[in-house]
Amino acid sequence: MSAPKKLDLPAVRALLEKAHGRDYWRSLEDLAETDAFQDLMHREFPRYASEWEDGEGRRNFIKLMGASLALAGLSACTRQPTEYINPYVRQPEELVPGRPLFFATAMPLGASSTGLLVESHEGRPTKIEGNPDHPSLGACDVYAQASVLGLYDPDRSQALAEEGEIRSWSAFLETIRQAVEAQKAKQGAGLRILTETVTSPTMADQIKGMLAAFPAARWHQWEPAMAHSAAAGARLALGQPVNTIYDLRGADVIVSLDADFLASGPGSLRYARQFASRRRVRDSQTGMNRLYVVEPMPTPTGTKADHRLPLRAADVEQFAWSLAAAVGADTGGRKGIPNAAFDKWIGAIARDLQRHRGASLVIAGEQQSPAVHALAHSMNALLGNVGKTVVYTESVEANPVDQVASIYDLVKDMDAGAVDLLLILGGNPVYDAPVELGFRDRLKKATLRVHLSLHEDETSELCHWHLPMTHYLETWSDCRAHDGTVTIMQPLIAPLYAGKSVHEVLTMLTEQPERPGYDIVKSYWSRQHTGADFEAWWRKVVHDGIMPDTALPAKTVALRQGWAASLPQPASRQGLEIIFRPDPAVFDGRFANNGWLQEFPRPITQITWDNAAFMSPATAHEKGVVTSDLVELEYRGYKMRAPVSIQPGHADGCVTVHLGYGRTRAGHVGTRIGFNAYGMRTSNALWQDFGLKATKVGSGYLLVSIQDYHALDTRRHIIEKAAIEEYRRNPNVIQESAEAPPRELTLYPGFPYDKYAWGMAIDLTACTGCGACVVACQAENNIAVVGKQEVHHGRHMHWLRVDSYYHGDIENPEIYNQPVPCMQCENAPCELVCPVQATNHSSEGLNDMIYNRCVGTRYCSNNCPYKVRRFNFFLYSDWNTPSLKLQRNPDVTVRSRGVMEKCTYCVQRINRAKIDAEKEDRKVRDGEIQTACQATCPAEAIIFGNINDPNSRVARMKAEKTNYGLLADLNTRPRTTYLAALRNPNPEIEA
Amino acid sequence: MADERPLIDEELQPEPVIAPGYTFGTVTDQIASVVLTRRTPVFWMACFSAGFALLLLLLWSVALLFAKGVGIWGIKIPVGWGFAITNFVWWIGIGHAGTLISAILLLLNQQWRNSINRFAEAMTLFAVACAGMFPLLHMGRPWLFYWMFPYPNTMGVQPQFRSPLVWDVFAVSTYATVSFLFWFVGLMPDLATLRDRATNRWARGVYGMLAMGWRNSVRHWHHYETASLLLAGLATPLVLSVHTVVSFDFTIAIVPGWHSTFFPPYFVAGAIYSGFAMVLVLAIPLRAVYGLEGLITEKHLDNSAKVMLATGLIVGYSYMLETFTAWYSGNVYESAALWNRMTGPYAGAYWFLITCNVVAPQFLWFKRVRGKPILLFLASLVVLVGMWLERFVIIVTSLAQDYLPSSWRIFTPTRWDWATYLGTIGLFLFLFFLFIRLLPMISIFEVRTLLPQAKIEEEGQA
Amino acid sequence: MRVRSVRPPIYGVMAEFNNPTALVNAAREARARGYRRLDAYTPFPIEELAEVLHLPKSKLPLIVLIGGILGGLTGYLMQYYVTVIYFPINIGGRPLHSWPMYIVITFELTILFAAISAVLGLLGLCGLPMPYHPVFNVPRFARASRSRFFLCIQATDPLFDRKATEDFLESLEPREVAEVAH
């Protein structure tokens, strides 16, 4: 084959002009007709064929199914914790077999936590729901949704190990006691504790207590994906580390400086809901906030922007300088480096901000430089947003330290041989510590090394002792939300393995080493609780999942005068910019062994099972690479091979890499996939820096994405969209463009749906494409994981997918997200062609699928215009691994080989609600049934209900003028409909 | 189909269809000897063992298929049908020539059919057998195939009679049954001949059993003639219906590129097209090897070639019409589907099939080409390849890129797709050469009627 | 006609001819002589013989017609029963009795039943399968399926007389005349 034709931008644009008007382009490679793409295309006849034994993928797939032994027999017994825990709605003695109970707890992640209600079937936590009373407002992100699989992960470490030998806790206790005794003499000078970010008051109290006993001991913290520079920025501008909380309900104009505040970071769930609440256009109410986003890599927040500008991370800072200057904020007279890309915007945005004093908001991205944070603070201050849309509180962290310095000190001490006993409680520093510290080698200099973690990972490998940690669903603990609200975490199930919680390990260093976590947590709070009736209070707190009035109080801070003066001018800007970001699915690498997250199609890119070097079409063109080529990234002498992925809307001149891959000891699922970006990440450039070189070294890497074509062909009625102005001018603009044939236009009498008629409406204006619904659906419906190779073959099983479409210019297209569940068509094409009546219509309009009748002709899928049906080409479900059996939802069939499956609107939930209603002799109330996707959606974009009831939320949404059916012109009569995607562009800029 | 009748009718000319010099005896002996001889020609050995080898390949891949699931093929979402259904349609199509020749040409009183109808019918049976396997094999749970048939069962569920797949079940099984009956009825007198001529008592016993005591009585012949006319009358609409029904698999679906009303005639024409191609591919070597040039004459080849030309033109016309309607309808999905077919990932396959099915047959206009068996043989092979590609393109390209671009995906066959396909070719050869060896490949009694001696001289009456 | 109560000593007398014309003429002669219990054996169908021997029209078409009608009814009623009475269910919003979609199966079953009754009818009318028949006792009769034409006058014929009939057949210049033993 000839050398790959380069992606020729001018040519691409030319094609764009030609191809059915600039709307219609399918994917970059297709346009550029590169060989790489034609490779993909021209495979009518096999080049390398066999699927059934293709080493990698199938092996992965087997792996996913495998690794079961240790748990045999476990599936049988119900494992209630011994302590008394409080069910959310009913008391356990009321436990009715077949009726799930819900327990409140929370999932801590970084400096925040998500409040949860965990569904428990006969003592088995099976599904995560959000806790509406919690600051996270009852929504969940993908991490929380997938965490239940993490609990049952067969690869979790299942026993203590000393140098790989299985040991008992008492053996460890002996060792540790000796070590601690030895420290007593020297005030604990050789004792070091390394933790991740700690928000747990109890844990903080334990550590502080210990530091009191050992004054010379040290407590270090390191978490790779924290907002390290936010604290620095706060110190810079406000003179102290603060926690910044936003209130988007009051924000009419929002400027995001590379902040993905809708989909990641503390509070994002709450922000997403508040943001959506200001964009909900209902016929009378057409008010809409306006969002400007500048960012290098498209994020879910970017897709919601009314104006999005791709900028290199460093240029975001320059943009911030210029904007601040234009707004008139205190920049010490400094301006950003002039930049044609954004200069024409600055004025307009500044005016827009000034028009909305006190009702505007500037948000700095967690990963952005301290300067950007400082500028955001000063702009918000100037615009009078503080106290309105911005609230400052004390830090949520128990001990906010500069973590970079913290781990640096630890390494220094280890190097100096000053560390006798090192306790690593959680985290995986060997894998994720800044590379230039050489943590791996220096760690070996600590005399006794103990590592507590869920998996036996890279760090455990280098420690004398590995202690299995309890999963948060097995643990008594506490944690804080982004606003400081405390949740008492209660275990849903007794530890599956010989695990212990952080608290239980810490207490081993004290005089009462055997205290159960329950006592530790409870006694701490009994000391904090001032009032009498502690027991009652405790029960209520545990029951509710939040501790009242523990949200941190707002504090007033003043902007330091002349803060800007101290800042150095930007350093050299030579070469490409490298940008590190946490992976949207495996985060900082801790979720690498979670099959659901690995197979979770990343928002926008739709890539699964890999990370990649994302770059803009122009940059790729310049480097002469195309998607799935291999490039060698060279940065500060560190080298790394990575597959290229060309990302429309990515900023030119920079490369985004996601952390969390290239694990060497993650487990059967996550080991040795992707490349380890930590290998290039240094402590003084944690998130972005210049000086990257990228050279092509190969091609044909199997980079698997769930969506190959992102074209938005506006002649197909896929996504209806309009600017809010058009809509105000003509509310019928949507319905005029989407054509649905009238109901009378048929010879058939049609079937009546007189009792219930279930339907769904999805608000494309609200949807951020975060994908939580996809994982929620997977958890609720026992959807199998198929592995990279099978995804490559187009056999992923997600019942619900979030399509992403690009519209317009490839450098900076508008990006649309569209969740696509089954449309439950009233005239279902799939039913008509099934030869065995395996799929047919229920009296309530559901398009039912009868697995045990299906013979697997796949005709229904062929005839489904929405392609929402999924087929078990092999036996995908794991029928063997006991721990995975525990996770399954008992109300949903586990599918076998050779049958079709599809979204059922969570029919099991519908039926449960109907049974309850019948028992109480009433109709099902609106909102009583929430589908899994709806329940978890942070933006409340998905609404399900009975469309026969004109007052139901769904009926009212369907009555909206923005409501349209996907491909409605086929007269399939979809029960799932969409509300058009509306944007609120700034006329000054549009012009 | 009306279109090709005139072409055949113009063949009603006095010129004898078989070479002069044959008598009732020599005709009988020459055809029967192929079966009754002890010596087996090397050609037969070669073809038979080739077929057998491929048959083993088929068994292997089917075993694997049942053990692991249809995932061993290249099919995926959205391309739920790949080689399996392509092969099904292709084989069924080939299966059309036999019945067409024996039924329609009988009704049209085309005497030249008499020396090719027998093996054409056999070919039909075996082709249908190959075709029939695929709907079964391609199911996710093939062990439940019987759920496709209506039968009283405890589940209280019956087939879904609106589904074209169920129509297929009825159409194909009916076609198979009727073709077999027709073929067997045609065999009875010849079986009697073999019975009477066999020297080996085993052979005599078996053939006798099969002949069921046929004794060439005028009373037998009397009913027999009526029966074959009636069967021909029934088989004619049947043969036209079968591929119509097969085309419903696609036209009933709403997939752009499938959903069009002119598929039935288009498919039937294509079927006869490929059917006659297969007849020629088989007949040309056979007559050479067994020295049957006198019975299967240039005239037979010429006529078959003309039928191919005619149906080939219809097929070509259908391609044009397909494209035209896609453009004329102004339907964005239809036009996009056709556009993708011609320029998209499968453009290569599409243009290759156009070359095979539309360009290649044009050479059949020339008598010089029709007169050269070797050229005809090659042309027929090309047509067979083309017709397979046609089905592949229709099925796969339409599915690969339908309504929502987000779900578009390209189909890539695996080695097991190919193994299964080649395997059925093996099965076909295996059965066909078994037939050549064990049964008269040419209808003896019908050839007798073609001899001049068979005429009753009028002066006999006095 | 009257049927002989006693079983005749032989089945009949058979003459062998070289070509169809001779046979047809012979058969015509025999009819003229008043022989009725005649049968002719030919290696291929000869329409003239049916006329000459005044064979009644075949009942096969009627049988096939009945078979076909039966098949059609079966097809349609089965589908109607299943979709409307036995298991009425909403399939893709189509009416329960969607008759246009029943046509195919109705048609196919019509053909199937008709074809089967045609074949069974043929066998029935020809009295096949028939494991034994006297005519095969004539050694040369084997040629009836190759190249020779036979005329057989059965002993059950009222005019049959062993000697006279043989003489009569000899008078037709056959290749050979033979008695057909039971």
Binned, the helix content of chain C reads: 40-55%
From the spread of the alpha carbons, the general shape of chain A counts as globular
Query: Uncertain segments of chain C of ≥5 residues (pLDDT<50)?
Result: none
Query: What is the CATH topology descriptor of the largest domain in chain A?
Result: Alpha-Beta Plaits
Name some characteristics of this structure.
heterotrimer; B: mainly alpha; Formate dehydrogenase/DMSO reductase fold; disordered N terminus; C: 182 residues; 4-stranded antiparallel beta sheet; 5 helices; 44% helix; rod-shaped
List the helices and strands and how they pair.
The complex is a heterotrimer of chains A (991), B (462) and C (182).
Chain A: H1 9-18, H2 28-32, H3 35-41, H4 55-65, E1 101-109, E2 112-121, E3 124-130, H5 142-152, E4 160-162, E5 165-167, H6 169-185, E6 191-195, H7 201-213, E7 218-221, H8 228-238, E8 243-246, E9 253-257, H9 268-277, E10 290-295, H10 300-304, E11 307-310, H11 313-327, H12 340-355, E12 360-364, H13 370-382, E13 390-393, H14 403-415, E14 421-425, H15 429-432, H16 439-443, E15 448-453, H17 458-461, E16 465-468, E17 477-480, E18 486-489, H18 502-507, H19 517-528, H20 534-544, E19 576-581, H21 595-598, E20 613-615, H22 617-623, E21 630-635, E22 638-646, E23 654-658, E24 688-698, E25 721-723, H23 724-729, H24 733-737, E26 758-763, H25 772-780, H26 788-792, E27 801-807, E28 814-820, H27 829-833, E29 839-841, E30 847-849, H28 859-862, E31 870-871, H29 882-887, E32 900-901, H30 907-919, H31 932-936, E33 942-946, H32 953-958, E34 963-965, E35 976-979, E36 981-983, H33 987-990
Parallel strand pairs in A: 6-7, 6-14, 9-10, 9-12, 10-11, 14-15, 15-16, 19-23, 20-22, 25-36, 26-35
Antiparallel strand pairs in A: 1-2, 2-3, 4-5, 4-16, 8-13, 17-18, 19-24, 20-23, 21-22, 21-24, 26-33, 27-28, 29-30, 31-32, 34-35
Chain B: H1 5-9, H2 24-36, H3 42-68, H4 83-94, H5 96-107, H6 117-137, H7 164-197, H8 201-211, H9 218-251, H10 263-289, H11 298-329, H12 332-343, H13 347-359, H14 367-370, H15 373-400, H16 415-438, H17 444-450
Helix pairs in contact in B: 2-17, 3-16, 4-6, 4-10, 4-15, 5-6, 5-9, 5-10, 6-7, 6-16, 7-8, 7-9, 9-10, 10-11, 10-15, 11-12, 12-13, 13-15
Chain C: E1 12-17, H1 20-33, E2 38-41, H2 47-52, H3 60-86, H4 103-126, E3 149-154, H5 162-170, E4 176-180
Antiparallel strand pairs in C: 1-3, 1-4, 2-3
Helix pairs in contact in C: 3-4
